[in-house]
Amino acid sequence: MDIRQRRCCVGRLYFVNPFAGERYFLRTLLTKVKSAISFEAFRTVNDVVHDTFKLACITFGLYDSDDEWNACLEEAVGMQIGA
What we know:
There is one protein chain. This protein is mainly α and 83 residues long. The chain has one domain. The protein has four helices and two strands; from the N terminus they run ααββαα. The protein has helices spanning 22-32, 39-42, 53-60, 67-79; strands at residues 44-45, 48-49. Strands 1-2 form a two-stranded antiparallel ribbon. The radius of gyration is 14 Å and the shape is globular.
């Protein structure tokens, strides 16, 4: 059975500029959090609901290194923005 038929993957995520603020952090959480069914679920880390997606990302430990920024830049190069 195809993975999309089991409904356990996101089909397409569009590029979001890191300067977009909360939208960027929500997109980051979309790639890391599994089985979230609401925006509140995305902001919940260890049974604590955070006020913003940014705080949830920081608490999740997604911004301890530059890996996320490097992935963002590699994605932008792959899309050839401005070419």
